[in-house]
Amino acid sequence: MTLPMILRRRLIAAGLAAPLGAAVAAEADAYATARRRMLAEVEADMRDTARSTGRDRLDPRVAAAIGKVPRHRFVPAQLADRAYENRPLPIGHEQTISQPFIVALMTELVEPKATDRVLEIGTGSGYQAAVLAELAARVHTIEIVRPLGEQAAALLSSLGYRNVETRIGDGYLGWPEAAPFDAIVVTAAPDHMPQPLIDQLAPGGRLIAPVGSRFGIQTLQLLRKDAQGRALTRSVLEVRFVPLTRER
Ligand code: SAH
Questions:
Q1: How many domains does the chain have?
Q2: Is a pLDDT exceeding 80 seen at residue 20?
Q3: Stated pTM of the model
Q4: Of 242, 246, 186, 237, which is closest to residue 49 (Cα–Cα)?
Q5: Which residue range(s) make up the domain with 198?
């Protein structure tokens, strides 16, 4: 709530209102509280799904990133008050920002290290890219819907994420000039693991993708490349993502 300046000064003088700076800080803090609550729900989901995911809690670095990135900036303004609900939300163009638990889980499972180069397919709102950018050295992210990709690029830059590079295009093909990547996160569902992405994964790298049919069941699959370059895949959890499209 903003008060007319004169009225505010009077209230401050009377000791009934805090100076404006404090009001702004209080607003930021209101979101911080919501974010902490969201993080607690995400941790609860981690415990509930531990049997299939193999992880019962977030790495502290991942938890800190989820607790820091301002999700309310990545959703349409009219949905800002719902940004810290642990659920996906529409972002326009028939796309969604993923559920916070799923973003956290995928981030957790690709184990981004401070020196890592990471590729994301499906920039969408830019939220997952921001979380990855908190944890890795460099993030490359590709979006096929131009207006979404451009909006995310502008937002990420205005929030000060200097280590994210965005591109408009078909992420199925990866980003060969920037390869190899230590981690790859696919946030739209292909019906098979894209071979170009496997090829662009470094030895020791982790690739996570929701693989499955457009309307049926999709399974979060985690692929690891060992030091010799052999790929090993395991199924993590049943999920529901928008489809990976090939042409617009
Ligand atoms: N990571 C996003 C979630 C986006 S939903 C976030 O944090 O908000 C999936 C996104 O993948 C959509 O924006 C969709 O347009 C995009 N997408 C679908 N097929 C794609 C493709 N072949 N290449 C790149 N992006 C794709």
A1: 1
A2: no
A3: 0.90
A4: 237
A5: 44-239
